[in-house]
Prior knowledge:
Blueprint: H1 4-11, E1 15-22, E2 25-33, E3 49-52, H2 54-68, H3 100-104, H4 129-133, H5 158-172, H6 176-188, E4 194-195, H7 228-231, E5 233-235, H8 237-250, H9 261-267, E6 282-284, E7 291-298, E8 301-308, E9 313-319, H10 331-339
Antiparallel strand pairs: 1-2, 1-9, 3-5, 4-5, 6-7, 7-8, 8-9
Amino acid sequence: xxxxxxxMEHYHITGLSLVAIDKGKISSTDQFGVLExxxxxxxxEHSIFNACSISKFLTSILVMKLMEQGIVDLDExxxxxxxxxxxxxxxxxxxxxxxxxxxxxxxxxxxxxxxSFMELESFNEIPSMVExxxxxxxxxxxxxxxxVEPESEFHYSDAGFCLVQLxxxxxTQKPFSHVMDDFIFKPLRMTNSTxxxxxxxxxxxxxxxxxxxxxxxIPGKYSIYPYIAACGIWTTxxxxxxxxxxxxxxxxxxxKVGITSKQVKELFHPQGCKEWTGLGVFLDGTDDNLEFSSLxxxxxxxxxxxxxxYLQQGxxxxxxxxxxxxxxxxxxxxxxxxxx
Length: 340
């Protein structure tokens, strides 16, 4: 292993937490630095970080669970079940429809408008998903629409996961965060995980504050996003490790969430026009050496989850610092390459 404290100093990292998995068990947990620059609040195993787009990985697991229960269909036109908003019909959707499958693998034909999907501007004004999709908020300047034929191109899309969230809420008639609690967090006892647009009701003593690439505290300390299925997760490496282990156990028929071996293979099957895209994850390698990853990068935070489900190995890393560079080019890339 590299000298993590020295590398943290090099990259101006305020705090870092990681959990490694080997042989289907947690093999090590390590924490370094502090929750907030200029304080003595040390990072510990229960310190909670904003994992941003790792939310998409959890959302995909939730979809697989809802599919197993017959609540959703991966390949059904989402407009059949959407109630509060519909994907506009166009010549582009004549032959291929927007489905959960192509939303989860970023191939729905929906392209995020430039300058969209930033962090929350005011905690007092939480927009509805319909308002966001209809371009009546600062978070998305134009109405969401299909701009290329579904399944013809890859376009990484937060808007696509807004649709996934809305579909789940329309079908279940429950807030997305409650559905995630019921189906994922409670069965796995992920007690340090929350999908929320408001931290006002939380005890923030164990929440990491965000920092910029120079180690300075971000304005407001915490970055909140109003589209939680896309980037709203606050969690710990230990909690995410519980989910990773459950997915690994699912291949042996031992998932506490109730995910099946068939569904795990679906998650990690190359989708559509890109062989490196699974459902809510990115893929590398094949067969037993298959690797999947999910990265989180937001204002003040960077996180990385990588696993080899069939080798029963993996690592989850979280920092409360936005280094301004891709995870693989910073400290997390160095830790990853020292292990794999």
